């Protein structure tokens, strides 16, 4: 696995066309060309599904800042691409997208960095914690992530900080296209079992992307507040059956069913060229139902 690296800073709106420059740079020319060949012209001009917000706006996060550490990237061993005896593999690096709020991107001259704000370390991330206390509504999802060392027979990695964020039920991201809100973002530190648990919602499906949850993993909480030395930046793909069940409620999830019908994991420009083993590890195992919510888990593999 490559050493931790600084992220790219780019301005973005809220549409697939706005994502393309960053995604192209992150994924490489061959991967981007493969997607362009299969996506068609229409997909390039389709915007994300959002309502009631000003697209492209970015909020400057205020709050009690934690001084960013002087972080030094630490070289890591070259990971194996095959599964270990215990079944884990190194998670692929994916783009953090245009809405990370980790201090690495700017828009309209403003920078969002939720990682330096007081209150970001929390397990239940459904409410805003900066400016408002709005709670993101939708089907409840409780997700336990287990961070493991692929080079040590999938041994748990304790003390790692995991930053999780996702869009709301309408496809909007807090601090950006839902500029007044700070919901659906939070950090947890892994316990002795390498586990961190988050309570969020099943995110909506916006046009051009498979439903997903973003995450970044840092070696320590102090490093996480700096926002630029992640050991891994990746995404989780929501299970198709869960998405189909949740999105039947078109009142709560207005455009998600229609957007989901137009995308597949194979056509998604982030997950589309991953191996079957990678997709299996990136897809949380969930149980539950729309009424009571879903509970599940996923393994995150690092090479340490």
What does this structure look like?
- There is one protein chain.
- The chain contains seven helices and eleven strands.
- It is α+β, with helices and mostly antiparallel strands.
Features:
alpha+beta, five-stranded mixed β-sheet, four-stranded antiparallel β-sheet, 16% helix, disordered N terminus
Write a brief caption for the model.
Helices cover 16% and strands 22% of the residues. It has helices at 16-27, 29-39, 41-44, 221-224, 240-246, 256-260, 276-282, and strands at 102-107, 110-113, 140-149, 155-156, 161-165, 185-189, 195-201, 212-218, 232-237, 285-289, 293-302.
Strand content: 15-25%
Low-confidence stretches: 1-18, 20-85
Could you give a short account of the major beta sheet? 5 strands, mixed
What is Rg? 18 Å
Which structural class should the secondary elements be placed in?
Answer: alpha+beta
Assign an overall shape.
globular
Summed over residues and divided by their number, the pLDDT gives a mean of: 80
Order of helices and strands: HHHEEEEEEEEHEHHHEE
List the quaternary state of the chains: single chain
Number of strands: 11
Distance between the termini: 8 Å
């Amino acid at each position: 696995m490559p050493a931790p690296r600084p992220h790219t800073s780019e301005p973005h709106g809220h549409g697939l066309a706005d994502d393309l420059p960053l995604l192209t740079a992150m994924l490489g020319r061959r991967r981007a060309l493969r997607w362009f060949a299969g996506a068609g012209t229409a997909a390039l001009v389709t915007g994300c599904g959002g309502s009631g917000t000003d697209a492209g706006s970015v909020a400057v996060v205020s709050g009690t800042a934690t001084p960013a550490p002087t972080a030094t990237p630490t070289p890591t061993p070259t990971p194996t691409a095959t599964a270990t005896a215990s079944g884990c593999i190194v998670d692929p690096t994916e783009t953090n997208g245009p809405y990370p709020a980790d201090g690495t991107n700017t828009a309209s001259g403003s920078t969002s960095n939720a990682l330096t704000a007081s209150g970001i370390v929390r397990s239940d991330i459904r409410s805003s914690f900066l400016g408002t206390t709005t709670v993101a509504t939708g089907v409840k999802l409780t997700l336990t992530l287990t961070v493991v060392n692929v080079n040590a027979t999938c041994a748990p990695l304790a003390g790692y900080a995991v930053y999780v964020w996702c869009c709301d039920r309408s496809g909007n991201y807090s601090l950006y296209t839902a500029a007044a809100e700070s919901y659906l973002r939070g950090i947890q530190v892994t316990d002795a079992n390498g586990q961190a648990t988050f309570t969020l919602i099943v995110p909506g499906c916006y046009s051009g992307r498979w439903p997903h949850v973003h995450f970044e993993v840092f070696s320590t909480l102090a490093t996480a507040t700096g926002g630029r030395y992640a050991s891994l930046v990746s995404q989780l793909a929501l299970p198709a059956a869960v998405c189909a069940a949740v999105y039947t409620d078109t009142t709560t999830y207005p455009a998600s069913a229609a957007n989901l019908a137009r995308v597949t994991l194979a056509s998604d420009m982030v997950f589309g060229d991953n191996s079957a083993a990678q997709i299996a590890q990136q897809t949380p195992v969930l149980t539950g139902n729309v009424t009571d919510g879903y509970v599940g888990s996923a393994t995150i593999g690092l090479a340490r």
